[in-house]
Amino acid sequence: MANNKFHGLGIALITPFCTDGSIDFAALDRLVEYQIKGGADFLCIMGTTAETPTLSAEEKKKLKQHLVERVAGRVPLLMGCGGNNTAAVVNDLQTSDLSGIDGILSVCPYYNKPSQEGLYQHFAAIAQASPVPVVLYNVPGRTGVNMTAETTLRLAREFDNIVAIKEASGNITQMDDIIKNKPANFDVISGDDGITFPLITLGAVGVISVIGNALPSEFSRMVRLALKGEYNTSLNIHHKFTELFKLLFVDGNPAGVKAMLHEMGMIENVLRLPLVPTRLTTMERISSIVKELGY
C-alpha cells in the first residue's frame, strides 16, 4: 500500500445545500470536522454522492479550494475527475489547479458504452496526463458498462500512477479475480458499503463510503477491525448496519444519507434536481433508526 494513500475508511462526501439551493459551506465544515474526528482516513470529494453533475464550474472550483483549506492536509483528498469525453478529462487534468489534491477518482465513461479497448485507451490517456495518482472507478449500474478484471489488471500493470480501483460492480468473483492477480502496487477499494466487510476479508484495503458521512466512527471501527483480521467483531458491526445499507439507497443516493444527516440535525434535506428527497415512508424508518442509534 506504499504507493496508495487511499485505504481504510474513505468518505464519499455529500454537498450540503441551503434551503435556497446554494452550497451550505458552514454545514460542510461541520461535516468535515465530524468525519475526521470520527476516524475517516481520507475524503473523496466531488464524486457521485456530491451531486457533482449539478454543480457549476465555478461552484466546483470554490468547493475544491474550500475543502483543501479546511482539511489542511489532515487526511488525503481524492477528487472526482472523470467523464465520457476523454479529451475534455485530459484537458481538465492539464489545466486545473490540483494543489492540495492527493489523487483523482476517475469513473468509467458513461452513456457512450465503450468497448474494453476503449476503456483501456481512455484510462491510459488519463494516466499519462495526470500529475497525481489515479484511482479507477467501475460502477456499471450507473455507467452502463462494466470494466472487466482483465482490463483493470492491464491498466494496473502498465501504469504506475494508477494506484487502485473503486470497485462497485457488485460482482464478487470479478473483484476477487482483481485482488488475486493484481500487482503489489495496486489496491482494490470497495465502492459499496454493504459488501465492504466480505471484500476486505478477500484482500480489499478499504471503502469509499456513503454511510460514513453519517456514522464515521462506527463504520471506521468496522473497517479497521476487518483490516486487522478481527473478523467476528467486525462482522457483528456489519450486521447492525444491514437494514440501513438498504434504506440509504432505496430512493437513490445521496437522498438516503442526506435524509439521515438531516434527522441528525447536521444539514438541510435539500437536493438538486433531477434528484429529490426520500419518500416519507423511507424518511420515517431512517428517523426511527437514528433515534435507536442515540442521535
Structure description:
46% of the residues lie in helices and 13% in strands. By secondary structure, it is of the alpha/beta class. The protein is globular and about 50 Å long.
Keywords:
295 residues, alpha/beta, TIM Barrel, 8-stranded parallel β-sheet, 13 helices, 8 strands, globular
How do the helices and strands line up, and which of them pair or pack?
Blueprint: E1 8-12, H1 25-37, E2 42-45, H2 57-71, E3 77-80, H3 86-95, E4 103-107, H4 116-129, E5 134-138, H5 140-143, H6 149-158, E6 162-167, H7 172-181, E7 187-190, H8 196-202, E8 206-209, H9 216-227, H10 231-240, H11 242-250, H12 255-263, H13 280-292
Helix pairs in contact: 1-2, 3-4, 4-6, 6-7, 8-9, 9-10, 11-12, 11-13, 12-13
Low-confidence stretches: none
User: What fold name goes in the CATH topology slot?
Assistant: TIM Barrel
> Architecture in CATH?
Alpha-Beta Barrel
| Percentage of β-strand residues | 5-15%
Count of extended strands: 8
CATH domain class name: Alpha Beta
Order of helices and strands: EHEHEHEHEHHEHEHEHHHHH
* Structural class by SSE content: alpha/beta
- Main sheet attributes: strand count, strand direction, barrel closure: 8 strands, parallel
Shape: globular
